[in-house]
């Protein structure tokens, strides 16, 4: 049984007890003294033995606020190690993104260096690659 159901059950029990007490109160004045004292003692024992339901405070609590449920009350149980452990996934994500960026940059630089090496070691002069006729020649020879 969750906290909300337990609270609702306790409220229903309290309402029933209050209505029963209202019905019995007028007749209590007509009882003899010894019976009323025994009832008072029994009532005191029942209140003393009443089981008080205490539940541990959850890290997050659900509050009803104006017809909407609000999640709140977050920092009660977090110590230093819990905070560090909750930050580790974010740090791992940031480190992974930096690593991916570095690898991609190095890969792109290697591709550009390969193109430059092929361009400079080729038999054609670099100006030939800028000639529009040479591009047309490459396209035509690629189809054949």
What would you say about this model in short?
By secondary structure, the chain is mainly alpha-helical. The protein has five helices and two strands; from the N terminus they run H-H-E-E-H-H-H.
Describe the protein in words.
With 144 residues, the protein is mainly α. Helix content is 71%, strand content 7%. The protein has a two-stranded antiparallel sheet with strand order 1-2. A hairpin with a 2-residue loop joins β1 and β2. The model has no long low-confidence stretch (mean pLDDT 79).
Order of helices and strands: HHEEHHH
Strand order of the largest sheet: 1-2
Instruction: Count helical runs.
Output: 5
For the record, give the distance between the C-alpha atoms at the N and C termini, rounded to a whole number: 78 Å
Fraction of helical residues: over 70%
Mean pLDDT, rounded to whole units? Answer: 79
- What's the total count of β strands? 2
Envelope shape: rod-shaped
State the domain count.
2
Strand content: 5-15%
Structural class given helices, strands, pairing? Answer: mainly alpha
Largest sheet: 2 strands, antiparallel
Descriptive labels:
rod-shaped; 5 helices; 2 domains; mainly alpha; two-stranded antiparallel ribbon; 144 residues
Structural topology:
Blueprint: H1 3-28, H2 33-49, E1 61-65, E2 68-72, H3 80-121, H4 126-130, H5 132-143
Antiparallel strand pairs: 1-2
